[in-house]
Every structure is written in C-alpha cells, then in structure tokens.
Design a protein that fits this description.
The protein is mostly helical. Helices cover 59% and strands 9% of the residues. It has five helices and two strands, in the order E-E-H-H-H-H-H.
Length: 111
C-alpha cells in the first residue's frame, strides 16, 4: 500500500504545523517523529536563512544540531507545542556550549 495516505487532524500535508489544519501521514503512522518535526520547522525557517550572509550559514545550520541531539528529550516532553521545545533545545545547546567555554577559559586562566 505504498503511497496510501490518510487525513489526520493536526497534519498539514507534510509541510509543518499550521494551526488546526490537517496533515497527511503515511498509512500506519499516527504521529510524525520528532526528527520530522525538526525538519519541518527547519524548512519553514528557510526564508530566514536565505538572506543571511554566507559566513552566517554554517552557524545557523549548526543550531539545528542541538535540536537533533535533544530529540529524545523533546519526544518525552511533548506537550503539543513541539516548535517551542525544538527552539528551547537549540537555546539549551547554546547555553551548554557557553558553559563549556567558560570552564575551558577558567582552566587556562588558572595556569
């Protein structure tokens, strides 16, 4: 039954979350994976990425690595607002990097 789809509340034809619209899911999948939500949000954010300076594209792309790293936590905390959980995971990943850099700096300064 390849290619068979069903209409489920909350799906928007594979593009991303759009309020109370409908999305199509492949037969047998009742809820998209967190990684697919991450990709959908990333695609929706593409209009933001495009006009960035070329030197900023890599740092923008690395932000999404934090969301992918936290996918299991996002899944466990799923409160229905996955977009905010993804953005929080990105912010938390940035905070972790800041703390790691502070520790490294403190170690260098103590020498």
């Amino acid at each position: 039954m390849a290619g068979v789809t069903v209409s489920l509340p909350g799906w928007d034809h594979g593009v991303g979350l759009v309020g109370a619209g409908t999305r199509e899911a492949p037969m047998g999948r009742s809820k998209p994976t967190v990684r697919s939500y991450i990709e959908q949000l990333r695609e929706r954010m593409e209009p933001y990425r495009r006009p960035l300076r070329m030197q900023d594209h890599d740092s923008y792309d690395r932000l999404w690595e934090h969301a992918a790293y936290d996918a299991p936590s996002i899944k466990m905390a799923d409160n229905g607002d996955v977009d905010w959980l993804i953005l929080f995971a990105i912010a938390r990943g940035q905070q972790r990097e800041i703390e790691d850099l502070k520790e490294r700096l403190a170690a260098v300064e103590s020498v």
